[in-house]
Design a protein that fits this description.
- The chain contains two helices and 15 strands.
- The strands form four sheets. Strands 1-4-3-2-13-5 form a six-stranded mixed beta sheet, with no helix packed on it. Strands 6-10-11-12 form a four-stranded mixed beta sheet.
- A hairpin with a 5-residue loop joins strand 7 and strand 8.
- The protein starts with a helix and ends with a strand.
């Protein structure tokens, strides 16, 4: 009788251990990848039609707003002049359009292997031995002043903060769209007043309250496309040389 009890006792313990082991070793969804939505740098929904395009740039919010006639057609983050190179408010007009332009003032020094040694060099500086001066690209140039200030594609290192030498940088993926929608004579207002858009904030969820996805990582954030579904995306593309972002004017 005691032997029989001990067998049943052993069998019961074995089942209990197996149940616990099965529970503890159950296949889980693995570590949860928490991914914040990407920050939108622009929005564009121009369908053409009557009216001319006008541009309003808020230095306070670092945002450009676009209208066709009285209809709002989009906005984008910009990077205007940083301290010591401030962009002047005022009323301007586009006086020149050049698709492929390079700065005659600013650029960088790089060695024979293409490694950047000074990403904020000037054309007037002496080029160190063994180095080459490379003028900064200013793609889709739209001139506003006779002294070299204009709008063009460039790096926006921190949306909402000035970063340039006086020009108005726009997201590289977006600026070709704007370039094709404006003409010589398009009015541009630069103001210290806040934008109508306001500082754009992506609706981030707190890291500790983001929902878990039952099948693994969270799905990628929705991208902000133009009206052309195969057109440019909202994420700014940044060119790095030797691990250093090339800051253009």
């Amino acid at each position: 009788m005691s032997k029989r009890l001990s067998i049943h006792h052993f069998t019961g313990l074995s089942c209990l251990a197996f149940a616990l082991l099965s529970t503890s070793c159950a296949v889980s969804s693995g570590p949860v990848t928490r991914q914040r939505p990407e920050r939108k740098l622009y929005k564009w929904h121009d369908e053409g039609g009557p009216g001319k395009v006008t541009i309003r740039i808020s230095l306070t919010d670092q945002i450009a707003e676009f209208k066709r006639g009285n209809q709002e057609i989009g906005w984008c983050y910009v990077a205007t002049g940083k301290e010591g190179h401030g962009t002047r408010p005022g009323s301007y007009k586009i006086t020149e359009k050049i698709e492929d332009k390079y700065s005659n003032i600013y650029g960088w020094f790089e060695d024979e292997f293409g490694n950047v040694t000074d990403n904020d060099a000037k054309a007037s500086e002496r080029v160190p031995e063994g180095m080459t001066y490379v003028p900064a690209p200013m793609p889709y140039w739209m001139r506003l002043t006779s002294y070299g200030v204009g709008m063009h594609g460039g790096v926006i290192p921190e949306p909402g903060q000035p970063a340039s030498h006086g020009c108005i940088r726009m997201p590289k993926d977006f600026v070709p769209v704007l370039f094709g929608s404006v003409n010589v004579g398009t009015p541009v207002t630069i103001t210290n007043e806040p934008s109508n858009q306001g500082p754009y904030q992506e609706p981030h969820a707190p890291m500790d309250t983001m929902p878990r996805h039952p099948d693994g990582p969270m799905p990628p954030a929705e991208r902000n496309w133009t009206t052309n579904p195969t057109g440019p995306q909202s994420a700014d593309s940044v060119t790095y040389r030797n691990g250093v972002p090339v800051f253009v004017r």
